[in-house]
Fold:
Amino acid sequence: MNIGVVVDNELNDDKRVLREIEILREAGYRIFVLCFSFDNKSYSTIENITVTRIRIGKRLKDILFFFLNSFPAYEWMWSRKICEFININKINILHVHDLYMTKSGWSGIKRSGITIPMILDLHENYSFAVTTYNWTRGFLRNLISQPKQWKKKEKVLLGYAQKIIVLSKEFSDHLLNEYKFLTPKQFCVLPNVPDLDQMETFRTRGKSIVINKKEPVILYFGVVAERRGIFIALNSFREVVKMGHNAEFLIIGPVDRKDRKRFHESISSPDIHDCITYIPWIDLSELPAYLDLSDICIAPFLKNPQHESGVANKIFDYMAGGKPVIASDCLPQQKLIEEYECGLVYRNQAELTASIIKLLSDKSLRISMGDKGYRAILNEFNIRKKKSDLLEAYRQVLIN
Structure:
């Protein structure tokens, strides 16, 4: 059985797609991938799968995508490439990633002359998320990119797929409530849970981390941006320091371009500068070492439909590191944290500050919550436990 996976990005660094590919490959499927190769970069070979790379400049790709709703050349290009990909590799099931690739996948199947099912993999609530992206903001950019068109298109695009993979049951429930033609059997819930084998490999080969740890360490890991709640977190940390509590704030991740000036000004403020360490980038293999030296981990996402489409990778990573989590009340992460008692959930700035102080002041509570989160990862939220859901989705597609 030949599975065709379509990703409009580079493949080698896409953790979610690679995990799914490995699950399918281990189950005996032959995997073929169609993806981009940017700016003549070289990529390492991925064992036992066939990768077809479309060579394109990253800037040209971004321009074509920006104009997609005004002039769909991007869609046409992918439709043609997918048609060729299906015919050359004799694809039996097409698995496309992200809402905006759905029409190209459907059109590519139609052009190929071969009737095959399509699985749609939704990495986020794209129809909302795109309205928050910096590249769609401003009068002219908004006029050309037309981000609100994605919500209008969503119903039709979802209708092209025989099976839809989502990050959380909350998001599938949202779509079922909104589009009555969808049925629960069409959905497969596959959260971004960690690969325990990979994490153990990282733990044994990770570099030794040097940081002057004098006080409890609060860790933020991931993209640094206003939409991710970094400024709310910094404001709460400032309040914690003013109240006389000792702590270090370790922030790891790249900063969104529009937020760079504000972020660097914030962490350079005299009242907190000496208590903050900022690292722009680490290799993923180093994360377990940073988790080992941390005491509290935070995920201060702003509450909105995008952040309520699933539990973020970082929360599972924090739990796998055995650390207590402080997170905003986005529904999927709130349910997870409250059910497994692995952290604290806040609704506003004052509650975030109080949550940080509570965990800073109670080491035994930190350890207890961290242990509960780690056990939840071992027993339920890991790729070994969840892979059966993906395989069942494929089985259902094949028998229908």
Q: What stands out?
A: Residues 73-89 form the longest helix (17 residues). The chain has two domains: 2-193+383-399, 196-379. The domain at 2-193+383-399 is CATH 3.40.50.2000 (Rossmann fold).
